[in-house]
Design a protein that fits this description.
This protein is an alpha/beta fold. The protein has helices at 2-5, 24-37, 47-56, 79-88, 108-118, 130-138, 163-172, 186-194, 204-207, 209-221, and strands at residues 9-13, 41-45, 61-64, 92-96, 122-126, 143-145, 177-180, 199-202.
Length: 223
């Protein structure tokens, strides 16, 4: 399954709470459209979304469950969340791969080991830094993603993808590195592959009409 994702585009089909597209049927349709466009895989959030996408799209799926405040661990924060995501149909479960304390008090290694022992799923560790990625690989992660770069800590949020982190992780790790986060153009996706990414995850620029609309509006307002 991992080999089928090499050099591929993984489309993240997610909608924010309160939005019109925050519905499993809408996200399943997004995933079906991504399949037509040539996506190699899908990333989805929430048990109902994961379940319906699993039933309707024959692509590898990275599943996660966002739960808790965003200033703490909230991407599949506990082992219980991870097992539920896999039960819903995800072949890969994305979990917070930072070095912060986990809500269920398990270490990252304990969480990953339990997932491997109890299921056949792979684990993607969403990291924020090179040190996160190194520790996640040592803990047994099958994939390391740059998902949380720029989102941990109190510093200013960057606007561009963290290609330096992609390159650093690719140079240091032996597991696949997935580039994710603020990849808004085809050129940036290609640059991520050039930097060493095994695969590229794109969400907002493909599946979030509100953001895409705002980009056009803001550019036109600056004329």
């Amino acid at each position: 399954m991992l080999e089928s994702l090499r050099g591929g585009l993984i489309v993240s089909c997610q909608a924010y709470p309160g939005e019109p597209l925050r519905d499993p049927r809408a996200m399943a349709l997004m995933a079906q459209s991504a399949l037509i466009g040539g996506a190699a895989g899908i990333r989805a959030q929430g048990l109902d979304d994961i379940r319906l996408i699993h039933e309707s799209v024959q692509l590898p799926q990275i599943g996660l469950w966002k739960d808790g405040p965003k200033d703490s661990i909230f991407i599949t924060p506990t082992l219980k969340h991870a097992l539920a995501v896999i039960e819903a149909g995800a072949q890969i479960v994305a979990i917070d791969g930072t070095r912060r304390p986990r809500p269920d008090r398990l270490t990252l290694a304990q969480t990953i080991n339990a997932i491997h022992e109890q299921t056949g799923a792979l684990v993607m560790a969403d990291a924020s830094s090179l040190d996160d990625g190194i520790e996640a690989q040592e803990a047994g992660a099958d994939i390391v993603g740059t998902t949380l770069s720029g989102y941990v800590g109190n510093g200013p949020k960057p606007r561009k993808p963290d290609l330096d982190l992609v390159a650093d992780l690719a140079a240091k790790l032996t597991v696949p590195v997935f580039a994710e986060g603020r990849i808004h153009t085809p050129a940036q996706a290609q640059a991520a592959l050039t930097a060493g990414a095994f695969a590229v995850v794109v969400g907002t620029a493909i599946t979030h009409p509100a953001s895409i609309t705002s980009w056009f509006r803001d550019a036109m307002d600056r004329r």
